[in-house]
Amino acid sequence: MEKSRNTKLITEVGNRYTYEELLQLEKARNATVKTRGLREVVEKIEEALQNFINKQKKRGAATVVVTTETTSTTTIPETPSATEPITTETNTTPPVDVVVTPPIVTPPPPPSPPAILNFSDLIQENLSDANGEYFRAIYPKKQIYIHHTVSNGNPLGSINWWRKQANGVAAFVVIAGKQFTPQATYKDGDIYQCFSSKYWAHHLGLKQEHLLPNGLSNIQLNRGSIAIEICGWGALSKNADGTFSPIGYSQVILQANEVQRYPKKYRGVEYYQKYTPAQIESLRKLLVYLCDTYKIDSTYKGDAIFDVDRRALKGENGIFTHTSVRPDKSDCHPQPELIAMLKGL
Questions:
Q1: Three-class SS of residue 254?
Q2: What is the pTM of this model?
Q3: Does the domain made of 119-232+275-343 have the CATH classification 3.40.50.10170?
Q4: Each residue of 96-109: pLDDT tens digit?
């Protein structure tokens, strides 16, 4: 068989080659034939596959992508059905970096600005300068003093007393407390104005022993300051049944939730009536307005303002309490909520 193929090859090309060369030529020719035959087979397969794909398209099957690149693989079911798609997995697509975007967090809305003093909310209970209830004279204002009334929540109690006494003792405003009767016409936190803050009245009651040597006088400190009164009983005593009464007013009963306790006592007393949140808020509005109007320093001067404070007696610019200049007074007591408000001005 091998000899016959060699003879045929010699017959075609003549005697120009040796036997070995002729063998190599025959092998090369056979390889060419095989390659050509293989290519024809591949082309027939591709043609058959394309015909199959076209039929599948007509039936509504999924699209098949065929590529001859070695990095792709095509999977074809042995017995494809009309509803079974042919899956193609392709590795030619480069990997894509996945960027994870963090969720968008909406920040909370900014807090509402603190309310300011609304003059239309002030209740006018004008005192009379003609009757000597205050002094209609203008002096520069450098200080504000906070007092409490030692009374129930009705501001008219103090205002009517000032009217009756007519001795020039009064305050610029009085802040109402809780209603102690259902018929009360005032509300907790209401502000009653007695005269303009640019005028003055006696409110400190300083005696010579209270003053600094060669310091400001009682009249000078009163003229240069503004008084704010908060309605409240102040110092309390505890009753046997767990309720509380103002010292000297045993008929008045307060509950435990109205009481501020000082375990180490403040000015010798353990219990005081609390200033209400509404009163503290009204006080804040007044302080903001007055400090802005008269350029009074609103910086909290520390807990020293709840004891005799030489800065107050010197007439230093700022906010003080009656206890800052009087060792025999307890208004105002250092309630934590009050201090927090003063620190926040």
A1: strand
A2: 0.69
A3: no
A4: 555 566 777 788 88
